[in-house]
Amino acid sequence: MKYVRYSYKQNVSYGSLKNDAITPLSEAPWGVDCIALDESIPLHNVVLKAPCLPGKVVCIALNYPGITGASAVDQEPLVFLKPSSSVIGPNEKIINPFKGVNVWGESELAIVIGKTLKNVGSIEAKNGIFGYCCANDVSASNLGERDHHLARSKAADTFCVLGPWVDTEFVPKSQTIQGYHNDILLREDKLSARFFKDVDLIKWLSSWMTLEPGDVVLTGAPSRMREREFLQCGDNFRVLIEGLGELSNNYV
């Protein structure tokens, strides 16, 4: 099932999506009291928003071969955080608050958490994954290499794009993940190439951080196929994940 968060008649709601029609929900689909309402709204009548409002976005770096500094022999993932205020949805504008600083997009697979997870085993970790969506980990240059925790480079408003929906039936295997800058393919790999897979990531994260319903885990960007392209005013960045969806945003 695909789940969306959408704006309709000045209200923002959650809903399930099937055959280009949305069935509104009483609350977020991972909520214990969530029920479907007796209504149907055509998809073309709504504006899609980020499909969830995470309390936190936990991001995994260096998780694909070919990324500078990445290695299959690393003992544990490299992690940074993005705040909920950085989250936007499909077709919303990416805005750079840093004058004269280069910004770029990174295509990623996002895990949406459906249960409270703490010190879980493999079965609990697997069952705690609500679904998946596309993500763009927007990033700014780390001037002077001073931003050791990547807060300035990664956590600005509009720097975490999620959407267009959460798919609970998607199973990551060898599907292709791509990132396009103005229709130029910049990043590409197979989801199976990731060093740290989903269940192992969730188990490890939950050993020292409580994951809560609606939280998001970004699982890393594939390596570049060509030199990095920086976003310029009017540019577009698209994330495509085979069998999951497409996420597109312009930079202003």
The CA-CA distance between the termini, in Å, is 33 Å
Shape field: globular
Count the E strands.
18
Number of helices: 3
Strand content: 35-45%
Mean pLDDT: 95
Structural class: mainly beta
- Biggest sheet descriptor: 12 strands, mixed
What does the radius of gyration come to?
17 Å
Order of helices and strands: EEEEEEEEEEHEEHEEEHEEE
**pLDDT < 50 runs, ≥5 residues:** none
**How much helix is in the residues?**
under 10%
Please write out the topology.
Elements: E1 2-8, E2 11-18, E3 21-24, E4 41-42, E5 47-48, E6 56-61, E7 78-83, E8 87-88, E9 103-104, E10 107-113, H1 122-127, E11 129-137, E12 139-140, H2 151-154, E13 160-167, E14 176-181, E15 184-190, H3 198-206, E16 216-218, E17 236-241, E18 245-250
Parallel strand pairs: 6-16, 8-13
Antiparallel strand pairs: 1-2, 1-5, 1-13, 2-3, 3-4, 6-7, 9-12, 10-11, 10-16, 11-13, 14-15, 14-17, 17-18
Q: What does the model show?
A:
The structure is a single chain. The chain is mainly β and 252 residues long. The protein is 8% helix and 37% strand. It is built from 3 helices and 18 strands. β2 and β3 form a beta hairpin. The longest helix has 9 residues. It is globular. The relative contact order is 0.22. The mean pLDDT is 95.
